[in-house]
Known about the structure:
By secondary structure, the chain is an all-alpha fold. The chain has helices at 2-23, 27-30, 33-42, 47-65, 71-89, 95-120, 129-168. The chain is built from seven helices and no strands. The radius of gyration is 17 Å and the shape is elongated.
Amino acid sequence: MRGLKFAAGLAVAVLLHFGGASLWSGFFLILDLFLVLTLFNALDGDLTAGMLGGLAAGLVTDALTGGLFGLHGFADTILGYGAAFASQRIAIQRATGVLLFFLLAATLQQAITMSLNLLLTPAPTLPAYFNILAKVLLTGVAGLAVFAARRRALRLGQVWRRNRRARLR
């Protein structure tokens, strides 16, 4: 069931990526929906699921955005494992903590991908500072928005179940 949820999330991220790229060709330069999916997959603390989810999301990112194949796959694998490890040790439930979590992960992803790009390509091209800052901020805000929507949906589900039980009695 968990794998199906991740696959559905990956499909939604791909559709949103295509939708954003059709509106503006530089969409991926300022928002990484696949990183948001990777981090949400890792938030429950399962190390293997976080690592494999990061690998899958990163490779899909590499396939869709071009460039050096495996760059985001490697970075998202590290971040998926690290996020799952951190969520085992830290309770991340408040909005400020979630925002900080996503901002830190987006910053680390940018540092890893730029470092690998500098090490592995003969003529590396680094993104502009504005794009780096925008990607970190927008990925953090997108993660916070998805977290808030998920929390609201879970609360509405609990209210619905409680009301349904009360009607059955």
